[in-house]
Amino acid sequence: MSLKLFACGDIVNSAAKRDFVDNQLKEIITNSDISIGNFEAPIETEHMKAIKKVGPHVYQSKKSVQYLSEVGFDMVSLANNHIYDYGQDALEKTLDELKKHDLRFIGAGVDFDSAYKAQIIEKEGINIGVLAGCENEFGCLYENQERGGYAWLFHHLIEDNIVKLKQEVDSIVLIAHAGAENIPIPIKEWRARYKRLCDIGVDIIIGHHPHVPQGYEKYNGSIIFYSLGNFYFDTCSFKEKTDDSYSVLLDFDKDTKIAFKIIYHKKINGQTCFVKEEEVDFSLNKLNSLLEYDYEERNNSICIELFYKYYYGYYENALGVLPKKYNIMQSLKFLLKKILFNNKSIKNRNLMLLHNIRIDSHRFVVQRALSLLSERDYK
User: Per-residue pLDDT tens for 238-248?
Assistant: First the structure.
């Protein structure tokens, strides 16, 4: 006897596509004892109002919940950077719709305590504890606040809940939404955090948020899947992408042994389809090898590259300084805009500065890049 758990990455179904997965994937999802996906954004509601934040605001069709249920999903993780994009009302209506279709949820809630609450899955004597967290983006409950939101991966309650769950269940699965986007490896700080969580009791970590697949590794008896990539994402920037990624099918037995199978998929004609390993545009073996060979050097190099490619410009914007790459005409426009719209610019700059300081991955990358560059300058 075993308990089969299917886990996939990010899901946004804004266009309300009913057949967003093919029949082969639907069969795998339906035949699993529990199937979990990351529900990346709230449902559309009447008079919805976007919160103040930097970056895109994302929502999906109300029908997306029904279609998830029809495909065979039983549970969703809501600990992600978009679930609170439209505030408390949208979150509450999303939770109501999930309950209506008997979809359990973890990682977010109408208040602080419910956001950190774990779920226990039981089948004939096998008990699996599942919890979820995300990095500290807008909507995160990094402290006890008078609102809803999602759980933070660095909050002490995550560790407290793991220790408590360890006394109640056979195995623990943590769904983690974090990391720098569009890179082939997890940055060192997240790799260390996930290992710490395994040390105190997590058996399986399912990661996503980078939007691309990353490798997995076995650590001290646990397994860490750093990023599964997107499962189904139909926002404008991803509509035309094939999103070659993977999901995992975990098999828990009564002896607490855990086996797993990799499920490869990609979008074909707007539908996520089951494919063979050789049909995706990445090699999981190669991604795994990046975690072993020259990892430190590669991690450092990526941080410096991201700093110059993105973060340097972000901080110029946030601090209101003249970007060094501007030509004369761009510089004149910049100075004129600063004179005419200074008050509005200050508010926007403050928000941008907050965005880059509070979000763990942004802070980690910049801190490492600056440390490396400073050491290099003083040699």
Answer: 988 999 999 99
